[in-house]
Structures are given as C-alpha cells and as structure tokens.
Amino acid sequence: MATHDVVLAAVGDVVLARDDPACAFQHVRDELARADVRVCNLEVPLSNEGMPQYSKLVTLHSSPEMVTGYVHAGFEVVSLANNHTMDYGPAALVDTMRLLDAHGIAHAGAGQDREAAWCPLLRQVNGATVGFVSFASEAFPGYGATATRPGIAMVRRDPLYGPDGVSPDDVAQLQASIRRARDEADWVVAFFHWGLSQSRQTTVSQRHLARAAIDAGADVVVGHHPHILQGLELYKDAPILYSLGNFVFDLRPHFFGPMTNATVIARIGLSSGAVVHVELLPVWIGDDGRPFRLPPQDERTGQVLAEIRRLSRCLGTDTALAADAISLVPTAR
Could you tell me if residue 234 is inside a domain? Predict the structure, then answer.
C-alpha cells in the first residue's frame, strides 16, 4: 500500500467482558498499530451506574475495567451511536463518556444533550484534521438525545416516513453535522449503526443514509450492527463499507451464528482531501473470542474475500482480489 497522509484502521462491533481485557486484541495489535488512527464501535456502556431498560428485550453493559482493553489495542476513537449505549440509561452513558475521556479515547455519536450528540469530533492526525460523525438508525425508542437529556445521535426509522423509512428531519440534521465537519476537516468519516442483524443484504434505508451522508460531504461511510460482513459500494467515488461485522463480542455469544466469526480490519488511506485506497484484511474470531489475522494459505481467507467480492458486485462495485486482502481504489474526485 502506498504512503498516504493518514491511514485509518476501522473494525466492527466490540464488547469486552473478560478477566484480562488487554489480551483480547493480542493477535491483531501489531496490525492495528500499522495505522495512524484506530476506530471501533463501542457497543455497550462501560459502567456500573444506571438501571437496565426493562422494556427492552436485551440490555448489555460491561465493567469500567474493560476500558484497559481498548487502551491496550490503541483505539483513539470510538463510535457510541448504537442500540446498546443507552441500555442502562443516561447515567451509564455519562459515566462511560467520562471514563473514555479520562483514558484519552475520543468518542462520537452521543452526548449530554442533542447538540453534543450530533456534534462532529475533530482529531488532529499527522498535521491534518479528520472529522468523525456517528449516527444510529437501529436503536430503541427514547435512546436519542434531547435538548435536556443525554443520549445518542439517533435517526428515527418508521415506514410512515416513506419509501426510505427514515425521518427527513433527522437526515437533514445528519447532513448538517457532516457539513459542519466538512468546513473544518480535511476528511470526514461517517459511522452508521444500521441494517438487519446477521443479514448479508443491505436495506433501502442503509443505502439512502449512505448516499445522504456522501451528498453532504462525507469521504467514507463505515457501517456497524449487522454483526456480519456486508459488501462495499462506491457512490460518487466515495466508499461505503456497509458492515464490518463483529470484532470482539464477549457478551451473549450464543446469539451469533458461525458466519459471524468472519470479520476484517479495514485500512482506509486518506490523502489530498479524499479516500485513495480501501483495503480489507481478513480476520477470524477464534474459539476464545479473540480475533486473529487469517494467513493466505488458510482456506477461510479465500472464502471471506470471495464473499465480500460477491456482495460488492451485487452492489455494482468491483474490487481487486489479492492472496490475503481485498481492495477498492476510488478514482480521483
């Protein structure tokens, strides 16, 4: 891979709940360290505060001690806009944000109020500015931040909104957030928690939101929530990574089928105000719940890469296949 101004390493959903959280990323730490910035979706609050939302079927949280795992892996940025961040209410969310701040981990997609939740995160990397925004269209009613209550940047979804199924007001708000980031950043990365759990198929609302984000100025869109890999797409020459799958998910592993063991590390090269290269490195989640890089000779490597290529072709996007990675090279915009 050529040298770029900034290389971003993005992975999918992460939930730590183990005796030694620092060991969770032991087999991929060196690979993550090759990037300038490491990002993931922090799927649960790291807090002992609050109470579970009893009207919700599945509520998750982890001990604050788990933050050491994220620190050890080198994650500098986490996305908080998802369907579990508010499982233990505003108190746990606020406690989690304070914990992350204390450990130098920046976060996007949640805040003390609506303004803070929708506010872009700006990070200085290699003398340039990267803007991060994070939104969730798959979340429990009431999880969205309000003018007076902490919460996430939530895009409301309902068939009554029309064919795309998402609130036009919230789409306008996310576009305003992206434009705000665009005014101050060299690149804008948009995270979305969206789609159907354990489904390879992208939804109408996923595609609508991705396009809306790019139309507003996002350089790359990165998706979470399906817990399974989905395809890549180019829209206006901006890459859309619809789902990176799970990366470490220690809670409720019985919820997931064997296909969720396949995952990736996405290396995103940023240069000259655009995304110039996307490379997906195949990774497997072992029986101990720890991800490891698949070697070229492992038959699972070819299977994972071939499936991503097939799914991407279904979205009208061709990818370049190598022995140990799959890549996408947008043309200059």
Answer: yes
